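Hi, can you check this record?
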Amino acid sequence: MGKRAPKYSIILAAGKGTRMQSAALHKVCFPIDGQPAINRNLEVYKECGINSHIVVVGSQAGQVVETVGREHEGVIFVYQAEQSGTAHAARQGAGALALLDEQGEVLVVAGDRVIEPVVLEKLFDLFYSSKCDLAFLTGPKKRPTDPGRVLLYSDGSVMGNVEVRDVLQRCIYAQIRDSAEQGVSISRDDILKTIRKDFSDKKAALAFGELWQAVAVENREPLSGELLSWIKPEMTRFEFSDQAGKVLMLSPQEVDASPLNNSSVYLVKTAALNYALSRLNRNNAQGEEYLPDMITILAQAGQGSKPLFRVQALHVDNPNYIMAFNDPAELLEIETYVQAKKKGQIVAEVDGSDASRTIADWLESFQKSGQHGIKGNRRLWQELAGLYSDNPEVIRERIQSFIELLNYSKDRLGPEEKVLLVRSPGRVNMLGRHVDHQGGHCNLMTIGYETLLAVHPRSDDQVWLYNLDKERFPERNFSIGELVADLPWDDWISLVNSEKVSRLAHSYGGDWAQYVKAAVLRLQKKFVTRGLRGADLIVAGNIPVAAGLSSSSALVVGAAEAMVAVNKLDTFPNQLVDLCGEGEWFVGTRGGSADHAAIKLGQRGKVVKVTFFDFAVEKIVPFPRDYVLAVCDSGIKAQKSANAKDQFNHRVACYRIGLRLIRKIFPQYDHLLHHLRDVNIRTLGVPLSWIYKILLRLPEQASRGELRSSLAGEELEVFFKTHKEPEDGIYPIRGVVLFGLAECERSRLFSELLEKEEVEEIGRLMSVSHNGDRVASFDSMGKARNYCSPTSNGYLLDLIEDLESGDPERVMRAQLQWQPGAYGCSVPEIDKMVDIALATDGIVGAQLAGAGLGGCMMVLAHKDQVTALAGSLTDHYYRPYDKPVSIMLCKPISGSGVLLKNSGYSD
């Protein structure tokens, strides 16, 4: 998965830090828990993925260089000869980046900032997921003297930043000008008293110019006319542009009312940083260039109502998560927090909100809601409606499921024990199958079938698992400490690739506890300095098992949600998605995190388009009106163990080896190809015919020996050891790669078509996608024969000829999205169901659901055609194959979470 982080940081450590009252020690060299503050901060930045650092030094430069050099190699030091503020210091750091010819992103931060790693990870996630030019941290305004006031528009987007000295200056100017305009006499002594309340004489001389010269230097009473000439109207207010590009004037009081303080931690693209630095001025109360003005410059830059830069703020409520020190008292606050955290005095307590209630209280609330609807318990009913549907029948059905879970929990734990309720739905990927781990798009929706957990926190590290379906999912328990005791602990990859984990996965097979262990273990590895507390997890659910609807991933995400809540871990949605995806590697598969993204990020009534490497939600579009997604279970279980795992991992190996071959055969593209999805016309800057020419150079089939020979000197065993060698020894490289490239293109286009409600075109894409997985076709008598999509040299040469023909119909037919490829992870029964569905009038499209090798298929159908679809499948598949009819009609519901946690509803 890989961390998203900037390559460089610029650390500002040139100031004198006079308020620390030390002639011997530079401010950033003061120890925190026995370690110099700047070295401690560098460790945090490195932990978060920043590996190169530029430190701007000035005052006591030698001491700072020596202090950093003792613990950190390779740091670049830049000298700020003139102490002209943070903007001037940042300009020196940016100059060093320019000399290094580095472009990209950089973290700009003061050397005295003490930041929790989770905050930086959230900042990085916001920056990369939202494709920002600048992302910065804000905190709650604690004191009137806090330096920055961050201003937002009504929709929460960033307007700008104003320094508190400017607010104070303009408040004083406005007060004096207002009196002068009204003819009220203001004495010299009153003016001096007003100014000296907030400004020293030295700073006042800079801030008040002619006014200060008259009252403090010339010692005379100013006349009203002089005051009005010195204090222009624009000096009493602040001017911004509104979101339509019109002038917006704010009074100093309006600016000062902002509850957000600028924490002076910036993640910015170098181009945006240079743009802002070139436009700074000294027209302010302190007569110096302010680095925080970068926020205003970039947020206000635009052409009319169109912004030139994307600027976002990340608010951090916990004041301990971003701390800074300018005097010994503030340093002591940091030391106290660090020591308390180190000694375990800051511990996770059981959630005290409405999300944690006794089982008896939960039961009463659900029973009242079931009987009386919104009048029974308004808050609970509104929450359920927001999660599922406005349809009372749907809500009451889910209420009954919660009641069954709670009654079982009451028998297990007792009615007075407090529990949290976690829900984790199943998912379907409407388009973008098998490509999440190759960086492609997935178009995800959560379905109205879910795993529910009652979560009871424990005081020890034991995890006890109970399931309402005791026959299939027997009681299990494990100790977190014992689980991790003998595992390699360097990094997650080493852990999951270790012999011990391999033996564990093999010995437990597909036991349901393994998926809970996967979630717990990945969280414990992430939060390595904290021993996680355990929990009793009581599980129920109605997601069909081994049906390709991610029942196992729903359990992983549900368990992760439970452990995050019980331990009050600092995670954020995108990070949790990555952790769950990586956690499932513990079970033995090497897939991506598309399932987990859908389960966590799903929205009621919406399809969520996500991309990977870097993970981002690209678009959220409504599900088509008047349509349903019918998920139809084949009755063939899609197990994720033994031979199935081998086949899944075999296909992933084909992808990865295919990419290695392309990079070797076409070295001119090597620097552009990080993932398979990068083999496209936009990244390479080539016509589509050239993509087919690249595919022509790949082998249709190859053995391990042939691949080792073709990629001599490259490490292939890392791919081979994820699966047993196939019985026929064949790796169908070209067909798998063609499927992957075409599926990346299909999934990229899908949301645009969905937004336009071009359902017929969507249906074509779904059906072509299925053909790439198809293993059987059927003649007019219903007899099956083996099927494999074309991947031959002749086929590719025909596509190239079509593209070069100039005939619009042929050119369109040869577009990449219409080529199925040959992934081959369906089964004949599902192929049969797809064909039956497509032969039914009014059906838009049909395809395999999930990873394949059994499970379900899905059909996009108009709501009026559901009865006909059910009849066709019953007559031609379920009854002849002696399978129970299983057709689930799905519309999107909300993603996973803790019930009533952070709910905006009130009783």
Summary: The CA atoms of residues 635 and 883 lie 6 Å apart. The two ends are 42 Å apart (CA to CA). Confidence is low (pLDDT under 50) at residues 346-352. The first strand starts at residue 8 and ends at 13.
